[in-house]
Amino acid sequence: MMLKLVHLLGVLVCGSQAALQVSISLNKVELSVGESKFFICTAIGEPVRLEWYNPQGERIVPSKRMALHTETSRSRLIIYNAIIEDAGIYRCQATDASGHTEEASVVLEIYQRLTFRDVQSPQEFRHGETAEVVCDVISSPVPVVVWYYQDKEITEEHHSRYQVLTNNNLQIRQVTKADEGVYRCEASVEARGEIDFVDIAMVVNVPPVLSVFQQSFNATADYQESVTFTCMTSGSPDPVVTWHRKGQQLEPSEQYIITRLEGGRSMLTIRNIRQGDGGSYTCKATNKAGSQEREIFLKVFVQPHITQLKNVTAVEGSAAMISCVAEGEPLPDISWRRASDGQTFVDGDKSQDGRFEVRGRHGKSVLTISGVRLTDLGRFDCEALSRIGGHQKSMFLDIEYIPKFLTNHTIYYSWEGNPVNISCDVMSNPPATMLWRRERFTISAEGTANTRVHSADGKSVLEVTPMSDRDFGRYNCTARNNIGVRYQEFILAQADVPSNPYSVRLSAVSQRLATVTFMKPDSHGGVPISYYLVQYKEVGSQEWKDVKSHSIQTTVVLTGLEPNTTYEVRVAAVNGKGQGEFSHTETFQTLPIREPSPPAVHGQRGMGKAYRLGLVKQDDGGMPIVEYIVKYKTSSQDKEEQWMTKLVPGANDFAMLQPLQWNTRYEVEITARNVKGLSEPTFYQFFMPQKPDITAESLFSGLGLGTVVGLGLGALLLLLVLVDVSCFFLRHCGLLMCITRTLCGKKTTTSGKGKDIEEGKAAYLKLPLKEENGKESLKPDTIEIKVHSDNSIHTKPDVSKA
Fold first, then answer.
1. H/E run at residue 441
2. Does the global pTM surpass 0.70?
3. 431 and 478 part of one domain
4. Which of 45, 168, 225, 334 is deepest in the core (most CB within 10 A)?
């Protein structure tokens, strides 16, 4: 029908104007989408213009897809990459100079070839969902699509979960991992006998399945501990495991070590656990099909640690609150200990006097001390304790208080011209400033003509040198700090000499000695007593002799007295002001000269047959001991033994009795003699033991270490000489043999006569003989030893010296 229409149009054109004719190289063209084609339009006659028109009747203007190449009587239309919309009738129109037009047309039919558009492979789906495998294929006419799996056509009869949709896609309900594989989408156009296919790989992704072996862990902080969490994962594709904490993904570091092993195992190791590491950790597994998370909890136990404890300063009488804050996991119990007496306080405790009370909550404990006293000053220990461990810290409670005077000594004595130090001792916290006042006037630190102020920590000394009666009286010491002020008044009084001692007594009176004792005076005059002055003289004499006491002792010994003489004695006390009055005078008489008292004796055995008697002088009767008369004899019941006498000078303190007999008892009488006469005898007995055995121990007991060592070395040397001589005679060897050969060899060499040894001179060696007792023997004097060439030895006595 279309061909007939074109032919009819051509006939009409030719009939109307034979001069102008138009023709197109093709009448009808079939073109597939995407192909390119050109058409040539030829005009016969004298055309002035050739133009092309599209199926919409619009004049074709050159563009990227449509190009025009026009000459005088020829025009070419090119269509690039044809599309469906390009189908229709295209006209070529020729116009001559008179405006007459002729045209020709061509029919362009465009069809779609089998085309698979953007078919993705592989196509991925999530396990359990309804999968739609996309196969976008186009053609004109519409193609017929058939699906194949494992070389078998998919039909709904045999595959209940499979369905080919109207858009040619394949739907699979509740897809599983078993449905994974390669599917073929085959399209065909029966009218053209065209057929094509595409293979599509389908992947079924399985969401991660996550499991943990242990969901909670315990660890202790600050002990270099480590803990390892483990997650097991499965899924397709293999899930990626990440670890998270507080919403942040953990990255490998020195603290966090992440290890991935085969089989879907992932481990997170936390090193050097600290308190802040406690809490929840998340293990997350992710793949294309989804993700899954599991939480693991780490409980970190922390040793108690006291974070807040400060020194406290309180004012005496006020309240002090001491706070101790501790942390740890679990929270520790807090207790207090007072260092001064070791008393402890825990939460809820209250002391018997009600002053100490403890209240605590949530790791904080407050020790409250009401009515603070100075005895509360000192160290307090706070101890935080849990089942993990303990921690202790100490603080110091400082007490501030008003100045306190430390002494009640407020009266001082002095005299004109004698300086005195008035000491004001103060205890205070904080330290007090101190000043002196006299009759409402303040004494400056520089002092005055007769006053000076010396200050030190907690002490101020006012040095006063009284010059007149006006300088005696009241002085005021003022101590002040920021807590308060205190005053103390001192009195400077005029000193006096001491009163007289009393109750003077004499004791232990002998020929030349007497002991004076007395009682201290009732008044020392305001200043300490320096010493006591004891005066004594013979009755009738006017000259007193002075004896000073040792310090302030109330006993004085008088020496150098004359026997059988009457003396007077008196005592006075002396202080810084001067000497006081004497006591009442006492009279005593020394003893007359008499015989000495018996001496005391003690004995000690001496060396060998000697015995040593120690002599201790007793009362010598007023005159020196001239001598000791020592009489001794053996004690025997069978017969009367004669006394033996030994005179010992009185200056000696021992007597040596010797020689004595062994295994014998002796009696001794010792008498002391002075110029007046003899004392009563002192009796003493002793026993001489049996004669001791002479042993090596006794022989060497008197020798020193050097002597014993020398004797030992001498004996060893003698033994070596005897052994060498024995070797010389018996075995022809030893040091002696070497010396003999050396001497003989020298003589043979120096002779220079070349004679044999047996013809030469023998070497002689003389050795002294020893008797059994070690003494040298006189007969024979020496032994002659000849050494011959055959090394034989012959000995004979040296008769020439017999």
1. strand 441-443
2. no
3. yes
4. 334
